[in-house]
Design goal:
The chain contains five helices and five strands; from the N terminus they run ααββββαβαα. The protein is elongated. The protein has 127 residues and is of the alpha+beta class. It has a five-stranded antiparallel β-sheet with strand order 2-1-3-4-5. The longest helix is centred in the C-terminal third of the chain and has 18 residues. α1 crosses α2.
């Protein structure tokens, strides 16, 4: 089975074309070699996928005939991704939230104009 089709079948990607794009960008490795989308895979191959800043690694146990349900994915692969990889990703997102929260930062041109209008209208009332 092709690697892009396998990754789609075991639900790592929503579509086969997205899986093929990931292979073309070099985000998919089979047995420590960058894999093209047409690369054939076999049981006991080791696959590493770089997705959302996490290196997902797993071993192929069996080849499915078509896309499988989420509960049946573990029949076809053995997940060997370390738990620390997920914790580091959580820490990165927390650090980004700490430095800048949504809505903060420079004022927009609209905000600045409203502030200028407010200060001008208050200045005329004092005279």
């Amino acid at each position: 089975m092709r690697i892009d089709q396998y990754l789609w079948a075991v639900r790592y990607f929503k579509s086969r074309s997205i899986a093929a794009k990931a292979c073309k960008k070099g985000h998919v490795r089979v047995n420590d070699q960058v894999a093209k989308p047409s690369r054939e895979i076999f049981p006991m191959d080791k696959i590493i996928i770089r997705k959302e800043q996490i290196n997902h690694s797993f071993n192929v146990l069996d080849i499915p005939k078509s896309r499988v349900g989420a509960k049946l994915v573990d029949i076809y692969r053995l997940n060997t991704t370390p738990k620390d990889a997920f914790k580091q990703n959580e820490l990165q997102s927390l650090a980004q939230d700490y430095y800048r929260e949504k809505g903060e930062g420079r004022h927009t041109k609209k905000d600045r104009r409203e502030l200028e209008d407010y200060t001008e209208s208050n200045g005329e009332q004092e005279d």
